[in-house]
């Protein structure tokens, strides 16, 4: 597949904080954490800096919600305030990992649209972000297109558009929308998306440079926390010392920030220090119980033989999935992989089939492939595993999954190539699967 070059202008960015973008459009994700990146991106929570990090951001969001509620009691016909309230609820759901705020957001945005059904740009942005948060990317795309039509010069509209196209597997259109967002406003939100676009295409160097520029363009402490988190993860493989510097810098300003604690946990894992990784993941989950953090804790415990503790974490993870389902959030790739690895492979296949149909992004293709493999359907699985890697993304888990599928099919040379690739990208990419990759390679020997 050919892609046009994503050009990033070198002119200075006009400041635009993550908080202001959230105010305009809410958040498009529930697992990835921030509207700045597609849902398959690394977990993050854009927050305000300061000793309490996320706590201050939550307080500000709650204060804004209270102020908007007070205004609407006095002016119930204020459609703009209803739209802002819906976006604030969406943001709060994301910040707190509490999807029960999504129905509140839906009601507020519906009210805004009923009061002002034509050319309601803010409500359309909010509806797009809410739909994306619920993983209904077809609806998110429709709302984003409407928002762009109403106001084609608004950068955040193209962010929702880019995210929706990406999750629907429209890669060219997503990268075009990202480029338009960069052209309109080369600030942290657009530069972070551009970074992720190149990371997906396997260009780690350009992705890292763009994320450094996203950090340099940060217009607020919240922007800086977000960019530091992703920059740390990008540099962790090539330059661990830079990753450590970036994480330490962020934690000095916000020592309890979950996104930075999660980044430090992954840095500890890269060095093989599971004890410290568990400590930081646990601290992050205590602040905001994101499903990804709960699952990471469970799999770390399982890798250490702490089976009872692992099951307790998996139960907490299942509780979070139930909350998401009640809030009409569709299952994503992570939920499919969890079911394949720790639940019922048959159910994983059913969830994966739906995910590929409704959200055919790379991560969904990979998760469905793994579910099919775990269900013993390897010939079907291989085609989806190939699709998960067709952009050239340097994803060790995707290579591991395809390698094991090849092995099950008797394609030993292809299996060894993929398993070697997974461990070359990251020798400790997963506490359970990295050892499985090494064990499989030791049985079959090196590629000849």
From TrEMBL:
Entry-linked InterPro entries: TPR-like_helical_dom_sf, TPR_rpt
Keyword Nucleus attributed: no
Top-rank taxon: Bacteria
Region of interest (Disordered), residue spans: 43-62
Start-end of each TPR repeat: 155-188
SMART domains: TPR (SM00028)
Keyword presence, 4Fe-4S: no
Keywords attached to this entry: TPR repeat
Name assigned to this protein: Tetratricopeptide repeat protein
Species: Streptomyces hazeniae
């Amino acid at each position: 597949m050919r892609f046009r070059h994503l050009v990033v202008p070198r002119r200075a960015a006009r400041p635009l904080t993550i908080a202001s973008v959230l105010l305009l459009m809410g958040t498009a994700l529930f697992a990835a954490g921030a509207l700045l990146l597609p849902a398959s991106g690394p977990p993050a929570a854009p927050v305000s800096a300061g000793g309490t990090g996320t706590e201050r951001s939550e307080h500000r969001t709650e204060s804004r919600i209270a102020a908007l509620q007070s205004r609407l009691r006095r002016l119930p016909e204020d459609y703009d305030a209803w739209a802002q309230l819906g976006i604030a609820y969406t943001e709060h759901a994301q910040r707190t990992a509490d999807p029960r705020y999504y129905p509140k957001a839906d009601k507020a945005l519906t009210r805004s649209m009923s009061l002002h059904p034509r050319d309601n740009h803010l409500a359309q942005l909010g509806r797009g972000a809410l739909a994306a948060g619920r993983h209904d990317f077809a609806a998110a795309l429709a709302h984003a297109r409407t928002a762009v039509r109403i106001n084609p010069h608004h950068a955040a509209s193209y962010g929702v558009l880019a995210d929706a196209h990406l999750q629907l597997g429209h890669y060219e259109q997503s990268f075009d929308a990202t480029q338009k967002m960069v052209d309109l406003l080369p600030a942290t939100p657009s530069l972070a998306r551009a970074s992720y676009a190149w990371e997906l295409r396997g260009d780690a160097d350009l992705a890292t440079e763009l994320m450094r520029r996203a950090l340099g363009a940060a217009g607020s402490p919240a922007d800086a926390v977000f960019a530091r988190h992703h920059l740390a993860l990008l540099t962790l493989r090539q330059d661990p010392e830079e990753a450590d510097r970036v994480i330490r810098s962020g934690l000095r300003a916000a020592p309890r920030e979950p996104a930075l604690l999660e980044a430090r946990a992954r840095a500890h894992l890269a060095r093989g220090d599971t004890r410290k990784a568990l400590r930081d993941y646990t601290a992050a989950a205590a602040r905001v119980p994101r499903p990804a953090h709960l699952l990471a804790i469970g799999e770390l415990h399982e890798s250490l033989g702490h089976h009872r503790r692992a099951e307790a974490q998996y139960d907490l993870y299942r509780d979070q999935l139930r909350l998401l389902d009640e809030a009409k959030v569709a299952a994503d790739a992570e939920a499919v992989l969890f079911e394949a690895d720790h639940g019922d492979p048959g159910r994983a296949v059913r969830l994966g089939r739906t995910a590929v149909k409704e959200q055919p992004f790379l991560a969904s293709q990979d998760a469905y492939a793994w579910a099919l493999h775990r269900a013993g359907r390897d010939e079907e699985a291989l085609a989806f595993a190939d699709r998960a890697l067709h952009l050239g993304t340097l994803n060790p888990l995707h290579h591991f999954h395809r390698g094991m599928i090849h092995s099950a099919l008797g394609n030993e040379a292809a299996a060894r190539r993929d398993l070697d690739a997974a461990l070359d990208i990251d020798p400790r990419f997963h506490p359970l699967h990295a050892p499985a990759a090494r064990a499989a390679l030791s049985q079959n020997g090196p590629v000849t």
